[in-house]
Amino acid sequence: MQIKPGDSISINNLFEELNKAHDYIYNTTLFISVEVTPVLIGPFDFDINVVVKERWYIFPIPAFQLADRSFNEWFVKYKGSLNRVSYGLRFYHFNISGRNDRLSLAVINGFTRNISLLYKAPYTNPALSDGVTFGSGFLQTREIPYKTDDKNNLVYFKNEDFVKNEWYVTGAYSLRRAIKKKQTFSITFRHVNVDDSLISQYYDPGYFNSNSPSQNFIELSYTLQFIDVDNILYPLKGYSTLFSLTKRGLQFKGNINSFTFRTAYNKYFSYNYKWYSSIRLLGQVELPFKQPYYNQRALGYLNDYVRGDEYFAIDGVAFGLAKFDLKKQFFHFNIPTFLKSNTYNKLPFTLYAKAFLDGGYVFSQKEFDSRLNNCLLYSGGVGIDIITLYDFKLSIEYSFNQLKQKGLFLHN
Asked: Which has the least CB within 10 A, 157, 210, 360, 368?
């Protein structure tokens, strides 16, 4: 909390300060509900009463993992083939020692193999300002993209065995001198080995920009974040910014060496009658511009995509992305769980109807050019966000893009 014993607060600012305290406590992600109320104990003095309901922290979760970049790509392009599914177990403990420290373990088999372990302790000192992260993992996959065709479809290399093996170790140190500001310094060592045939003249000799199918490299990164939102997992009010620098490899050119700048700004607006809007801006530049295919990742990967272009991989060394949303909460209800628990006796659901517009641009060198590189990308559509316990979100979106294509997409 930003409020300390002995503070003086103007009665005009009391409601705002209590709301901030609520948001800061909730954004620890330790609780499913938080109530912060003043209790008068004198004409000029009051206590603050905080009531929380703790989340459940231990989750052994069966894993069902798709090999493709999105649910739609797997379901539409590959007809929902179970041969492209990985399965196993993910184990999470979100509060091992009571200091919000987290442990995650994954054991996955099938189309890909993944064994990974990660421990994150955000608070390691009495001032709650310093934190550390440690992790390692081993990954194998049966196919890897080695080029993107002129219509922005990934072209895969595969054979009967695993064609890519990778292991890594990582560590990070975080510094949080204020509630809204956080800095993170991290270092990762990676070993990547691909099938010899992949880097032949027949496939892609420029995949690594090297004649060797094995690569060992270090990634160094620095990230600065400012976060001041009401709900860190599904913001409706406030703003957040991010700036990061990542150095891959210790040289300045050749092989897979790169220097990446990434910045983001998100602004969330709250209006009367449960109307909301947001503007999200993201940009990234990778230097030098001459990069191997291994480093050519722009839009269409993870959360960096123009809605409506989910089927496309748009590679490049620099990109910009803008997203605008207008939404309204139109339904909220609870479903009884019949559990004998004051915390989990009901399952909440909140539904938001939304309209959205996206715009983007990806710069790539001429040898990597395709129909969606080096041109304006835009899309629009409507959708529904469904929010439930633990701020799990399912987005159902109907969108159209600059190619006059349209479709229904799912995201979570």
From this structure: 210
Closest CA to 125 of 99, 157, 91: 99
Q: Is 404 left (phi over 0), alpha (psi -120 to 50) or beta?
A: left
Contact 338, 302 (CB under 8 A): no
Q: How far is CA 248 from CA 180, 186, 187, 268, 287, in A?
A: 28, 12, 10, 33, 10
**DSSP state at residue 17:** H
β-partners of residue 259 are 247, 287
Averaged confidence pLDDT in the chain: 92
Report which DSSP code applies to 290. Answer: -
Angle at 177 (CA atoms; ends 174, 183), nearest 5 degrees: 35
Question: Could you tell me which of 198, 216, 195, 196 has the C-alpha nearest to residue 206?
Answer: 198
Q: What is the pLDDT of residues 329-359, one digit of tens each?
A: 999 998 988 888 877 888 889 999 999 999 9
Convert 137-165 to b/e letters by CB count within 10 Å (16 or more is b). Answer: bebbbbbbbbbbeeebbbeebeeeebbbb
The token pair at 155 is 């072209």
Place of tokens 């490899």: 249
Per-residue CA distances from 72 to 80, 200, 294, 308, 311 (Å): 9, 32, 24, 11, 8
- Identify whether the C-beta of residue 411 lies closer than 8 Å to the C-beta of residue 305: no
Query: For residues 6 and 23, what is the distance between their CA atoms, to the nearest angstrom?
Result: 21
Between CA 87 and CA 401 the distance in angstroms is 33
Give the rounded distance of the alpha carbon of 301 from its chain centre.
11
Closest CA to 130 of 168, 99, 95, 85: 99
From residue 80, give the alpha-carbon distance in Å to each of 28, 74, 75, 87, 409: 37, 5, 4, 15, 14
Q: How many residues does the chain have?
A: 412
Task: State pTM to two decimals.
Answer: 0.89
pLDDT at 282 over 90: yes
pLDDT digits (tens, 9 = 90+) for 71-86: 888 888 888 888 888 9
DSSP state of 265: E
pLDDT attached to residue 114:
94
